[in-house]
Design brief:
The chain is built from ten helices and two strands; from the N terminus they run ααββαααααααα. By secondary structure, it is mainly alpha-helical. A two-stranded antiparallel sheet has the order 1-2. Belongs to the ADIPOR family.
Length: 358
Amino acid sequence: MSTDSDFIEPIEITEDIQSESINNSESTTVEKTNLPIVGPILERLNREEKVAEREEKREEDDILPAPQFTKFQLSRYEDTPKFLRRPFIMDHYRVHFSYNLCFASLFKLHNETWNVWTHLIGALIFFLLLIHTIIIFSVGYGTGDFRAGDLFVMVVYCILALNCFLSSACYHLFGCHSAKTWHTCYKCDLSAISGLIGGSFIPALYYNLYCDFAFQIFYIVMICALALLGMSFPFVPMSGNEKYTRIFRTIRTTLFVCIVLSAVIPIFHWLVFLLPGHGAGFGVENIIFLCGMLLMLSLYLIGLFFWLTRIPERLLPGYFDIWFSSHQIWHILIVAAACVWYAFMVRLYRWKISNQFK
């Protein structure tokens, strides 16, 4: 009996082990997911693995040419390459559209629609102002006193504003084509911003320093040199390298500040030192000019506040993907500031030719 029992027991144990191994091989995931702790951990690992795969694919998309979509379809934030993402904008991204589809998306709703249209309208405004400037300034604004310099500085300003708004619209419209296109459009946009900042102050320096030719030339050459440096800087080969992103961003911001200071400082130099030397009082027109400059700078600064803080989408992510995002507000204020400055420059020009330079 003892021998039989010894023989039978191992067989039963072996059968149990075999059946257990079969069950384990067939339903390991079922048994594990039934555990209260292991199940959620495995689910989380699976999610993280999928996210990692998507991130790896997006990084490849940032470098390698991606297939271009010819059908209009929008993507969510997590399915969008890093170079196209915007903080707190959660949906309605265009990803790897063909150029034809990019252009067609101009007439469809997505998270760049109004970023494109706000500056397209700004470009149209300054195209019309450019034509108006050439026609009206050519006859001395009704006085018959035509000066080529008066026309030239205003034409330069209108062209630089037109270029800025067109570059911005193209960046927002075609940037979704590919990483290469995005970077190219982005560089053109940054370059055009430097041009607009510098070009905005050229008419002011030209008109206010009309009687101080040496200072006029010195300050205009200085601001033009800085503006050209700022316009060319984005195209420096290393500026697109991620290793130097922080350094180049700091240099770019410093250039923007220097361009602004190169215009603001001469204007105050004129007000404090040069204007009294000509026996001119601090008249109404000078006050109006200063108010115009402060209004323009205020609009820029308010727009910059929205651009930096990402308000309102920061407060309610996903609610401002299409309408009223901070970038749209920033665009509107930039166009408003440029139009306000044009109006004040025209007023300054008319006052100069009617009172001082006949």
